[in-house]
Write a structure and sequence with these properties.
- The protein is mainly alpha-helical and about 240 residues long.
- α5 packs antiparallel against α9 and α6 packs across α8.
- The protein has 2 domains: about 55 residues, Arc Repressor Mutant, subunit A (Orthogonal Bundle), CATH 1.10.10.60; about 180 residues, Orthogonal Bundle (Tetracycline Repressor, domain 2).
- It has 11 helices and no strands.
Length: about 240
């Protein structure tokens, strides 16, 4: 009896958390992230303000939960591509397209969130301490992309490549946020064309003269990428 009661309690908590998330995302889309309030979210979810704060301490925590769900949805969406494709180019493009597909319904909201996230000190920044668990998951997803590819990535580049691919994806997302083409079609073309260039660069790393040049470029990325603390600086893989 105790186990069943605990299970029902957990299920109810999960349903309540999901209801708050669904209501909040609709409100964010309608009014914008900055203008929406926790009080209004509680009202629309038919909950007291205290109960809403129990599940999410701030609007930022709601967005983090949305990002976590989106990441799981992205993994699911990219699963078929990773099972079917062995080309590194197709795998990279497929995973990033899966991200865009999942995020597409929230394109307008993403514009506002990206303005906030452009501050590397803000919790919602992809480079913040608060974002580190999700950032690590995103970087790890590119390890699977590389591991299942038929191309052999040079050993010296292999530990660095997942984070480089994640940074490349951040660049694609930035373009997508500002893409005004119908259904952001230009973003999908950019993914296809740029993924081809990325793989050519990976292959070029095998050439000694080019490798030295690319190592310098990778060093610049490592030195000047945004970071918010010495902890992150020590933990970087480059």
């Amino acid at each position: 009896m105790g186990d069943r009661a605990d299970q029902q309690k957990h299920m109810k908590a999960a349903e309540t958390r999901q209801r708050i998330l669904d209501v909040a995302m609709k409100l964010f889309l309608k009014e914008g992230f900055e203008r929406a309030t926790m009080r209004k979210i509680a009202q629309l979810a038919n909950l007291s303000l205290g109960a809403t704060y129990y599940y999410f301490r701030t609007k930022q925590h709601i967005i983090f939960h949305y990002y976590e769900q989106s990441h799981e949805d992205q993994l699911q969406a990219s699963h078929e591509v990773l099972l079917r494709e062995t080309s590194l180019e197709t795998r990279i493009a497929g995973v990033i397209k899966a991200h865009i597909d999942v995020a597409q319904p929230f394109h307008e909201l993403s514009k506002e969130l990206f303005k906030i996230a452009s501050d590397p000190e803000h919790a919602l920044s992809p480079f913040s301490k608060e974002s580190k668990p999700l950032r690590d998951k995103n970087i790890a997803s590119f390890e699977e992309v590389i591991d299942g590819a038929r191309e052999n990535v040079p050993a010296a580049l292999r530990p660095k490549l997942p984070e480089l691919l994640w940074l490349y994806k951040i660049g694609i997302i930035l373009y997508w946020v500002h893409d005004t083409s119908a259904n952001q079609a230009k973003t999908y073309r950019l993914i296809d064309k740029s993924a081809s260039i990325v793989v050519k660069l990976v292959k070029a790393y095998k050439v000694p003269m080019l490798r030295r040049f690319m190592d310098e470029m990778i060093g610049l990325v490592a030195e000047f990428k945004p970071h918010v603390s010495e902890v992150l600086e020590e933990e970087r893989v480059f």
